[in-house]
Amino acid sequence: MHPIAFHLGSLPVRWYGVMMALAFFAGLWTATRRARLANVSGDVIADVTLWLMAGSILGARFVYVTTYWKQEFADQPFSEIFMIQHGGLVYYGGLIGATVSGIGYMFWKKLPVWKIADIIAPSIALGSVFGRIGCLLNGCCYGRACDLPWAITFTNPPAHELSGTPLNVPLHPTEIYDALLNFILYLALAWLFRRAWKTRMEDWGWKIEERQRAKSPSSILHPPASFADGQIFALYLIGYSVCRSIVEFFRGDYPADHIYAGVFTSAQLLSVPILLAGVALWFWRRQNDPAKPV
Asked: So what's the pLDDT on residue 294?
């Protein structure tokens, strides 16, 4: 693997940056298509996505820099803090940053927070697929040594120079593990979202193709059996924290002071409150009837 995709003159364009851009556009495209089903404007999703993207990059980079300051930044020029094309983003920092910026923006604009969270949730998982492919091409987030048939071996010196990746050693392809699990999570959440909204529209007497608002008396007497707004996002939090915790057992890039009790990584410890938040959100939103499209 080689971290540099191509050059624009003397400027190197790295694969990690290319994959991040693809993650953004793939996430935006799928979310805007999904928004139509929930009768939400694609322009609204695009505006929210920009705020989410900004918050996620700032949060992910901030947590990475503060976590690895001594190892990677203390002896480097100050400008290295901003060189995200070299890699170095912490997902959970990005999740927190995106949540704060996204919810803040949606409250400011008086948008339906939980409905939009459900629309975007599957696309977050899809974006993580591209992000992990970027990690693979960059050589970061590598796995422990192994002798399995599907082990991968890095041989390109830039990967070692940028991320300390062991060269000529068969490793667990943890980037691929993570990408595959996130892709499965994306498919599951996208299917559940579509199924939930089709059920709502059918129970409300809507015709999906025409977006008619004629409600049948039976739908008024019998509320639709579907997910409440926010529950798809809750499932994302639960699903991602479980998937991430599994993959972490095979990671080999953590320094010794980031391994706790000799087994657990810092990401696994952070997965616990994320998982609990997802479970709490699920049951809290379950008490609310599915919101009607507006």
From this structure: 39
DSSP string for residues in 207-269: -TTTT-----HHHHHS---SPPTTHHHHHHHHHHHHHHHHHHTTB----GGGEETTTEEHHHH
Return the residue matching tokens 């940053």: 97
- Alpha-helical (H) ranges within 68-155 are 91-109, 113-138
Q: Are 270 and 92 in contact (CB under 8 A)?
A: yes
Q: Provide the β-strand partners of residue 62.
A: none
Nearest in space to 240 (alpha carbons), one of 267, 258, 216, 204: 267
Does residue 247 register a pLDDT over 50?
yes
Domain-wise residue ranges, the chain: 4-286
Q: Are 286 and 230 in contact (CB under 8 A)?
A: no
DSSP labels, 34-78? HHHHTT--HHHHHHHHHHHHHHHHHHHHHHHHHHSIIIIITTS-G
pLDDT at residue 249, as a whole number: 95
CA distance 20 to 33: 20
Is the pTM here over 0.90, yes or no? Answer: no
Residues facing 145 on adjacent strands: 171
The pLDDT tens digits of the residues spanning 123-175 come to 999 999 999 998 898 888 899 999 999 999 998 887 777 778 899 999 999 99
